[in-house]
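re the bet — no i am not wrong, look at it urself. input seq straight from the record:
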Amino acid sequence: LDSIEVPTDSVTFGPLVVKALDQKPDGIIFACNAEKIAKIIKELKSRGWTKMNHLLVFNSGDDAPLYTIGGEDINGVQVYNFINPNLDTPRWNGFKEAYMKAHNNMVPPSLSTHYYDALYMIKEAIEKTGVTGDPKKLTEERKKIADYCATVQNFQGLMFKWDMQAGVPTNKPLYLLEIQGGKKKMVKEVRPQ
């Protein structure tokens, strides 16, 4: 099926929804901002869309406006995320609590754990490669850090242990969640083979 571009200045979504529905899709993947996703889903429902679990929200769209604007209309919508809402470890719980305290009780967004892990991965690279911070060795030492992070194995992150191969995580899980009553419940955990 063809992609449907959502212009940044869109305020009404009827024509976009009609264009999408004309293709008779079995499902729709949303990769625009949360406010627009909520409004498009409301428009889809007003035009008879009922297969809510065939609507998939890209993780960056899993943000407050999706819930505040979408309300009950987003029940059943699927979201993929990099945060396991069922994880219960001291480290994750501490991070989540501190994040929520610093961000008006907002739950950490999808990629926040990756950014956190990246920072500590760089810290570990500095400690384990003997980087000195000498300005004369800047290029060489940046390469040491990058090479370390690109091949790190068994690095304990917030959600999982990272194993990298040529800069690509070989074991990074993602989580398929379903929205019900403003909350997300786990549908499936997907891990690379």
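see?? The longest strand covers residues 183-190. told u. also Strands lie at 28-30, 55-57, 78-81, 155-156, 161-162, 164-165, 168-169, 174-180, 183-190. so pay up
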